[in-house]
Amino acid sequence: MSKKAVVAYLGVPWPQVNDGLTYHDIVPPADAGLTLIEFYFRKYKKSAPLQGWLQRIQNKQITIDGKVVTLPDTKLRASAELVYHRLPWREPDAPYLLQVLFEDDYLIAVNKPSGLQVLPGGLYQQRTVLTQLQWHARKLTTTSSGCQKTHPVPVHRLGRGTSGILLCAKTKLSKSRLAAYFAEGTSVVEDKYTNSECNTMRKICKIYRALVSGLMDMDEVVIKQPIGTIKYPGVAKGLYVASPSGKPALSSIRVLERDLENNCTLVQVEIQSGRPHQIRIHLSFIGLPLIGDPLYVSGGQPKCFHPELTGESFEKDGGYQRPENPVPGDCGYNLHAHQIVLVHPISNECKLLDYFIAVITFYFYQVAALTLPNRTLLP
């Protein structure tokens, strides 16, 4: 399969504010007779407190069957169409340029910078990898005659603070097959190009590099600590932590460099499961948290937070303000998705492609160079 000539980077600067959002609901028979504010507060309690929904109604942000309603006690009838208009807002700063590592008719692999979210969520509804991919695809179809329309989408996630390789599918078929690869469990691929890095037959292998605080005694270790959730302010579905009652998770850690003077270690990590924040949790669980991690500390648990700082304060649009305690999306930790080996979802070729080896991002490399003087990072 021939490679297409691609630009080195894609991406356009973010607008000052996004376009806002609209949320549509049809009132079910069971909710007929509820007041407008009762409906929204019951269904979307995690979006805003009661006072916040009152503010949104009075701000003329909600319509019933196309008409603006400002009375919170308005009774609802079954099958009424409700639309909540979330006002445009300035999203937090985020990088926008994506280095293109590989592209063909079915896949595109990009080097995601730290600080850029993959999919919409929370305050980041526009400033995401997905948005830049969509804008890029739209530009290609409008400027190139005969260019086949594609809908590139990421097929896995990287944490907002994690840099490195992100695989994206350009067709429905490649998306479904790559999704199946990840569903089988991220592990390793046996292939002559891997130099024994990968020695078990799987469809995909993801290799990470991380800088951890402390010196790892053993050259290699396998961590099998389960990962579960706990209640945590600012994280609606709960915070993932090391938990004996959680789901199974396995990470293989190998030491690349130790820096005795600065008490840190450069490690390589392969995961055979894909729990959220798994690498951060597992490394902190064994007492080696990522350098710069604002959330996880030894034991795979969060830093202490102050419940009194997480009350119901809200923004101008009525939504909850960001809590004072650290949350998973906070950046600063040093984790890089360094390498991917996979069976191509269409051609079935099994290769370690040079295009899939991302150069460690400048910030990460700078930290590593400062922390590990007079040493060369392995390719």
TrEMBL record:
InterPro entries: PsdUridine_synth_cat_dom_sf (IPR020103), PsdUridine_synth_RluA-like_CS (IPR006224), PsdUridine_synth_RsuA/RluA (IPR006145), RluA_PseudoU_synthase (IPR050188). GO terms for molecular function: pseudouridine synthase activity; RNA binding. It comes from the Eukaryota. It catalyses: a uridine in RNA = a pseudouridine in RNA. SUPFAM superfamilies: Pseudouridine synthase (SSF55120). Residues 106-284 form the Pseudouridine synthase RsuA/RluA-like domain. PROSITE patterns: PSI_RLU. It holds the Pfam family PseudoU_synth_2. This is Pseudouridine synthase RsuA/RluA-like domain-containing protein. It comes from Anisodus tanguticus.
